[in-house]
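Work Package 3 committed the consortium to producing structural models of liganded targets before the mid-term review. Because experimental data for this complex are still outstanding, the team generated a predictive model from sequence and the ligand definition alone, so that downstream docking and mutagenesis planning could proceed in parallel. The input record is reproduced below exactly as it was submitted to the modelling pipeline, together with the SMILES string for magnesium ion.
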Amino acid sequence: MLSTELNKLVKVSFIGHPAVGKTTMLKLLSKNTIDRIYMPTHGFDLKTVQIESFTLKIWDLAGQKNYLKAYSKDHLLGSDIIIVVTDSTPRNVLSSRELINYATHFVGRDCPIIAIANKQDLKSVDGRMDPERVGEILKVKTFGLTAINPEQRMILINIIRKELERVAVKRGMREDEF
Ligand SMILES: Nc1nc2c(ncn2[C@@H]2O[C@H](COP(=O)(O)OP(=O)(O)O)[C@@H](O)[C@H]2O)c(=O)[nH]1
Ligand SMILES: [Mg+2]
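The resulting structure, written out as tokens with the ligand in place, is given here.
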């Protein structure tokens, strides 16, 4: 049924400063091989990813200098889930808090905003923060990740799946429909 199909179409927006790992996360979701070459995203990338019966339209919103302006209303509006990606350094986490405030303006309280404390593999070498600490600062649900590790693909999928279930419930879907 068409309405069921539409119910399963979900817009997910990745936001975060340059080089925190947004594109790597998108690749982690879509395949198993991770390309370590850094290609700054210009504008945005749009990828379609299937998680169970859901079709996710994932917007990887970029921006090098004026990143705040790049997260324009048009990009964020209509998001069902916003995922803020940080590299877990204190400085980046603090400025990600601003990004969350900015995003909240456009999407209101209905759209869940969660955070990924990425680059956890570097935590022991350079003082990055663990996900608990990052979550305290950002005041949103926060999960740790090492996006360059293909073995962490299921971790990321499970994080998103939890949020998808909430979206489905909000849309009035029954559990046997998702
Ligand atoms: N050590 C480490 N490097 C990462 C991780 N995730 C991404 N990177 C690297 O960080 C750089 C920027 O990643 P990218 O996904 O392009 O960042 P974006 O600008 O947010 O899209 C690349 O060189 C990635 O390989 C991670 O979990 N650990
Ligand atoms: Mg990118």
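Reviewers should note the following from the model. Residues 16, 18-24, 36, 38, 40-41, 118-119, 121-122, 146-148 surround guanosine-5'-diphosphate (ligand 1) (CB under 6 Å). These observations will guide the Year 2 experiments.
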